[in-house]
Specification:
The structure holds two protein chains of two kinds.
Chain A: H1 2-21, H2 25-46, H3 52-79, H4 92-112, H5 124-141, H6 145-164, H7 172-200
Helix pairs in contact in A: 1-2, 1-4, 1-5, 2-3, 2-6, 3-7, 4-5, 5-6, 6-7
Chain B: H1 3-14, H2 24-41, H3 56-81, H4 89-107, H5 111-129, H6 135-168, H7 177-183, H8 189-207, H9 215-222, H10 225-252, H11 256-278, H12 284-305, H13 310-338, H14 349-352, H15 354-367, H16 374-388, H17 392-417, H18 434-452, H19 456-469
Helix pairs in contact in B: 1-4, 2-3, 3-4, 3-10, 3-13, 3-18, 3-19, 4-5, 4-10, 5-6, 5-10, 6-8, 6-9, 7-10, 8-10, 9-12, 10-12, 10-13, 11-12, 11-17, 12-13, 12-16, 12-17, 13-15, 13-16, 13-18, 13-19, 15-17, 15-18, 16-17, 16-18
Classes of the chains: A mainly alpha, B mainly alpha.
Chain lengths: 213, 473
């Protein structure tokens, strides 16, 4: 069980780096969608006894992270007629290296933190921290509004992985709140992106500088 | 109390008339304030459960926000009469909805629920920023959503860390505030430290502490004055309440030295950043935003000093909230009378708008801590606390920052109110009306009254809250 779990987590780490190194926005969105679906599988492995609330949560996770949000983003992309590639602040290769460094740092850092007995041997904590870091790299180094939304999604994925540690202890309602907020947040953001597009005829946040000091 | 404003928000969405709809705001606000007074005077009557409890610090925030909202609601009716061309359906609904969600934040006694509610305040306030539909307001909304969401995501990670701290210590993992507080001394230290940093940064983003304050000048610069008042007095107070809860947990865990160092640093840093940006600031609304950053810094600094400074800190929530109301509402009036918020154009506000100009000047004197206004008392109490605990260097820097802010803000404010309007500036029709001036006058009088004399019940309430934070029964 732990082996399978760790295999999935390693896959998620690889996807982080792949997303950082891909230039086509469509491919990045698909990668993040796949990551979302993989995240939906994790509770099955962590949670020993599958109950109805857990099953509902898994379904919701897969549906929202893997299907709904990516399709909203693809639509925003199509409406906005973006075909150009992502334009990072730093090159694609440096951002992969940065992501790899962040992953290594996360592994070291997680080694310092004490774990509860039932969580020894899993990569949940380092994967979570590394994914949060990768989300930050996305947010900081990308200019396109939609890439920043993707970065935020990756960040939320990292937090979701950490939530797996607590899934048996926390009330379901909080987990659902997380999903709901994520969904609404992205939804609102997409609306805003559309408006930005109308007003600026580009989704480049570099143009959003008229309020600079 | 939570459901009522949400219901009114739904009604606001349904009411077809653009002229009648704003009146829902004062109606809601009056009923809500009456309920607040009722709840505060007869706490024993309220039915509570494990998730929703009104504890002493929450009472202060509730009082501040409902007072501020009451006056803002009347102001909004006056304001929207000048903005007839724009549909105010979403604006009104979001404003009332914010009141409802704010109540959830105040009542929540569960860290998860509190987080959900604070995230919801982010979402419900975003359309308010977008009200003007200009490219600049889109930009402000975008920055607010992005920075705010990242902050709130970090706060969630911090909440998870906190839950894991109790799981790792073999305790029953629960995020109910009472349980966490009771088990605080047993929590796993490394996780608690990490959780504290994440939560302080996360909710600090929502409060607008430097260096996570970047959304503030953008947003406050672009929103209508009334929304600025709600943000600076309401949203930030709610976020500060969240910080208070974390503070209390760490205090109960005996981490006093660790958190106090961090908080004093964050507080002074915010004040310094605000002071530096305020000097030579030509946009008077952005100046108010930096003033808000400064006062969030003062609040966190007060917490960091702790002990004798807690009374001043809690009082400062109140005085800051009300004074910010005065400043933002009067600056909104000035903005409308000149159609500009740059000090190149806006001069001689005293001549064009005698009432708003005077209020703006009085609000400036109050917020920078001049006697005899309320903020003077609270800032003096925090300073006193710093001396009492032997933090002379902190107190010295605090004073120097206050002076810097006074000079920087004073230059801008005096340019705005003094002199005479430049000849080439177009004259607008706007003059102070009853609805846009009277609420501001009452708020100003309240700020003055708190400075002269703190009413007995209010003093008791704040003392209770300070005692509660320190874990005294």
């Amino acid at each position: 069980m732990t082996n399978l779990l760790n295999a999935i987590l390693v896959l998620i780490l690889v996807m982080n780096l792949f997303a950082l190194g891909t230039s086509r926005i469509n491919a990045v969105i698909r990668t993040v969608a796949l990551q979302g679906i993989l995240l939906g599988i994790i509770p099955l492995l962590v949670h020993k006894h599958l109950t109805v609330p857990v099953a509902i949560m898994i379904g919701a996770a897969i549906a929202i992270k893997g299907v709904v949000i990516p399709s909203i983003m693809t639509r925003a992309l199509r409406d906005a007629q973006i075909k150009r590639e992502v334009e990072p602040l730093i090159g694609l290769l440096p951002s992969i290296i940065l992501g790899a460094a962040a992953t290594a740092f996360a592994l070291l850092f997680a080694g310092q933190l004490p774990l509860a007995a039932q969580h020894y041997g899993t990569l949940l904590v380092p994967t979570s921290i590394a994914t949060v870091f990768v989300g930050f790299i996305f947010l900081v180094t990308r200019y396109k509004a939609i890439s920043q939304v993707i970065g935020y999604l990756v960040l939320e994925n990292g937090i979701f992985i950490f939530g797996m540690l607590l899934i048996e202890a926390m009330p379901l309602i909080v987990e659902l709140g997380v999903m709901l907020d994520l969904f609404v947040g992205i939804f609102v953001t997409c609306i805003i992106i559309n408006h930005i597009n109308q007003a600026f005829s580009s989704m480049d946040t570099r143009r959003l500088v008229s309020l600079k000091e | 109390m939570i459901l009522f404003p949400l219901m009114m928000a739904a009604i606001a969405l349904l009411v077809p008339s653009n002229r009648l709809r704003p009146w829902l705001l004062p109606i809601t606000a009056v009923i809500y304030s009456a309920t607040t007074v009722f709840v505060l005077t007869r706490p024993d009557l309220m039915i509570t459960n494990e998730w929703l409890i009104l504890d002493p610090p929450a009472r202060i925030v509730l009082l501040v926000v409902s007072t501020l909202f009451l006056f803002c609601s009347f102001y909004t009716v006056g304001y929207l009469q000048y903005r007839k061309e724009r549909s105010n359906r979403v604006f009104c609904a979001c404003l009332i909805g914010f009141l409802g969600i704010m109540s959830v934040v105040v009542w929540a006694h569960h860290l998860g629920l509190m987080w959900v509610a604070i995230e919801a305040t982010t979402l419900v306030t975003a359309p308010l920023i977008y009200f003007n539909r200009t490219p600049r307001s889109i930009e402000a909304t975008w920055k607010y959503l992005m920075v705010g969401s990242v902050g709130i995501a970090l706060a969630l990670l911090g909440t998870f860390f906190l839950a894991y701290a109790s799981l790792q210590s073999g305790l029953e993992s629960s995020l109910a505030f009472e349980d966490v507080l009771r088990n605080a001394p047993l929590l796993s230290k490394p996780w608690l430290h990490a959780a504290f940093i994440l939560l302080l940064v996360g909710y600090g983003t929502k409060m607008g502490l430097a260096p996570m304050h970047t959304w503030k000048p953008e947003v406050y610069g672009e929103v209508p004055g009334v929304v600025g008042a709600i943000f600076a007095g309401g949203v930030t107070s709610c976020a500060f309440l969240a910080v208070l809860r974390i503070y209390q947990i760490c205090l109960a865990a005996g981490e006093n030295a660790y958190i106090s160092r961090l908080m004093v640093f964050m507080g002074l840093f915010s004040m310094a950043v605000a002071g530096l940006f305020m000097v030579n600031q030509r946009d008077f609304k952005r100046m108010l935003a930096y003033s808000s950053v400064e006062h969030m810094g003062i609040l966190v600094l007060g917490l960091g000093i702790g002990g004798p400074a807690l009374f001043g800190t809690l009082l400062h929530i109140m005085t800051n909230g009300l004074t910010k109301g005065v400043l933002f509402l009067s600056s909104g009036n000035i903005h409308r009378a000149y159609n500009s918020k740059s000090t190149d154009v806006v001069r001689g506000a005293m001549r064009r708008l005698p009432l708003s100009g005077t209020l703006f000047l009085a609000g400036f004197l109050a917020i920078t801590g001049s006697p005899p206004f309320g903020p003077f008392i609270s800032e003096f109490a925090i300073l006193n606390g710093a001396f009492d605990t032997g933090r002379f260097i902190t107190a010295g820097i605090f004073l120097a920052m206050l002076l810097l802010v006074f000079i920087g803000m004073g230059a801008t404010v005096l340019t705005v109110v003094q002199g005479r309007p430049p000849a080439h500036v177009e004259d607008t029709e706007y003059r102070d009306g009853f609805l846009t001036a009277a609420p501001v006058v009452i708020l100003m009088v309240m700020v003055l009254l708190i400075g002269l004399y703190i009413p007995g019940p209010l003093g008791t309430m704040i003392k209770d809250a300070a005692g509660f934070l320190e874990g005294r029964p």
